[in-house]
Amino acid sequence: MKRCNHSQHQEFDGSIMTPWFTYELSRQSTTAETQNNIVAGRWLFRFDNHNLIQSRQAAAVCPYFIEDDEDEMIDDVLLSCFNCMQRRWLIDGFECVGLPLNQPLVE
Amino acid sequence: MTTTWLICIDDTDDIGTKGTGEIAEEIMHLIMAKSVVRSVNDRKVKHATWVTRHQLFVHPDIPYTSHNSAMCFELESDLSLSQIKQLCIAHLVAESAAVADPGLAIVDKHALTADDCHQLIGFGVDAKQMVKTKNEAYQLAKTVNVDLSEHGGTGQGVIGALAGIGLRLSGNDGRLKGQVSVGLSAEIPSVLLSVDQITEQCGLDGVMDVNGQMLNGNEQVLLSGKVKAVFHGHLFLLLAYQVPDPKTGALQWCNALRQQLKKY
Questions:
Q1: Does the structure show a pLDDT above 90 at B64?
Q2: pTM reported for the whole predicted model
Q3: For chain A, domain boundaries
Q4: Taking CA atoms, what residue in B is nearest to A74?
Q5: Under DSSP, is residue B10 helix (H, G, I), strand (E, B) or coil?
Q6: I need a surface site. Which of A80, B16, B87, B191 has the fewest CB within 10 A?
Q7: In chain A, which residues have their Cβ closer than 8 Å to the Cβ of B60?
Q8: What is the pLDDT of residue B45?
Q9: What are phi and psi of A31, to 5 degrees?
């Protein structure tokens, strides 16, 4: 099973994943809270559930990829967000629960 | 005297823990080991019984981990309901994730009336497209005599467990857990088998193309990668599609891609 090593990227804030994911705050927050990164949000995949190319490109650079149970994989290429244990399916997309829950410095 | 049991579990896992399918398979083998009569699918291949995975609704109001699927299996056993339930619960409690909300549904398949089946299938179909409640699940379970129980956390898993029973009864839902064994390895990355050979070797009921047409027994199928099967028309079927042979251009049957399996 391919697993990420979180100890190697403690300072990672998810910025490099912003071509594929957008960070959405979970509720209305004050400016001070947002500036201090104390309001948790969630990372939403920018593309639909059929976009294999973007899913593979994202996983190729993501340090948080963890291979999911074989029965839950839907891409024939292993290294794909669609095959990652940390993707949580939504009605028309998925959120990544592996990326750090602090607002990226760059989006 | 034996009974044909349908058993389904849901909401047992968390990120990084043992999957629900694996736990279901382990429970199935535990029961089989204690039973005189083995699985109903034990015709030609020993232990060739199948756990089916049933996809349920994903919605913000449903507290699933990452995919919201239930795992169901059928077996024939001389054990009583209480003996089977005891085995299931002991393993569920031991193997479920600490934060999981496990649910367990057990029913004597042949004790269900046509109306019971109709109601259970309806519940399963609904659970694929709308939010259902624990109360609804318990009410239906009581009506149709399904033994439904929760084993930790919020117990929300009872909804998926009951829905999985209904979807398995429908005969038209789900992928089979795991891969179909056709002898592939690093040294043998692909193999060409006839449909008859596939059914003989793997214990499947046939091969169907992605448009729902059954293949004839003498059709040749090139098998490679992850070989997966689906549950359709109350049959366990390999799914196949046609691609042109790169050398000759002739159409060749191949086992389906994961994207093609996704809708099951």
A1: no
A2: 0.89
A3: 46-98
A4: B258
A5: strand
A6: B16
A7: 90
A8: 37
A9: -60, -40
- Judging contacts by C-beta atoms under 8 Å, the chain B residues touching residue A81 are none
What is the complex's ipTM, to 2 decimals?
Answer: 0.84
The label of the residue with tokens 């005189």 reads B36
Largest distance between two CA atoms of chain B: 60
pLDDT of A1 reads 52
The string of pLDDT tens digits covering residues A45-58 is 999 989 999 999 99
Q: Which two tokens stand for residue B153?
A: 């956390």
Question: Alpha-carbon distance B69 to B53, whole Å?
Answer: 6
| E strands, B32-88, in order | 51-55, 69-77
Domains of chain B (ranges; CATH) run: 3-175 (3.30.70.2200), 179-261 (no CATH)
Q: Identify the bridge partners of residue A2 per DSSP, sorted by sequence position.
A: none
Planar angle of CA A7, A9, A11, nearest 5 degrees: 115
Q: State the nearest Cα–Cα gap between B80 and chain A, in angstroms.
A: 31
Q: Going by C-beta distance under 8 Å and a sequence separation of 6 or more, which residues neighbour residue B263?
A: none
Q: A53-92: string of b/e by CB count within 10 Å (b at 16+)?
A: ebbbbbbeebebbbebbebbbbbbeebbbbbbbbbbbeee
